[in-house]
Amino acid sequence: MDNCIFCKIIAGEIPSTKIYEDDDLLAFLDITQTTKGHTLVVPKRHTRNLLAMTPDDAALLFSKIPMIANKIVKNLDAKGMNILQNNEEIAGQSVFHTHVHLIPRYAEDDGFVGKFTEHDFDLAAIASEINRDSSN
After folding, report:
1. Which of 57-61, 108-112, 115-119 bottoms out in mean pLDDT, i.e. has the lowest?
2. CATH code where residue 22 lies
3. So which residues are the catalytic ones?
4. Would you say residue 96 has pLDDT above 70?
5. DSSP characters over 26-51
6. What residue intervals hold the motif Histidine triad motif (predicted)?
7. Residue 73 scores a pLDDT above 80
């Protein structure tokens, strides 16, 4: 894609700090560095996001995530890792090329805030909605 910043990084038109690369994907340090070692893992084949990926392309991307994440945790002495993937603007996606954030965690106050809020939803009704036949 001509205007995709990640495609330009993959092509070498924009510099990046690479930590892993193979024929299918590139992992490089995010310029925002939410925490030390914040990394983006990007497939070289352009797709808008995970929702647009084929199962094979998604499997290829996610098959490398544990190896890259473990390398970051081990070599930066992180205590854990948030693995985050946003799809569409409402979910926080700002670059529309599939990418996975690897955010090493060092302490509760290390700069990353991820909060879940409890809701009183009818789980059976939600499951019924999700599983309804939408082919009509």
Report:
1. 115-119
2. 3.30.428.10
3. 99
4. yes
5. EEEE-TT-SSTT-EEEEESS--SSGG
6. 97-101
7. yes
In the block, which residue shows the tokens 């473990």? 70
pLDDT at 46: 97
Burial 77-106 (b: 16+ CB within 10 A, else e): ebeebeebbbeeeeeebeebbbbbbbbbbb
The secondary structure of residue 92, as a DSSP letter, is T
pLDDT digits (tens, 9 = 90+) for 40-70: 999 999 999 999 999 999 999 999 999 999 9
Residue 104 and residue 121: Cα distance in Å, rounded? 32
Number of domains in the chain: 1
Q: Is residue 76 part of a domain?
A: yes
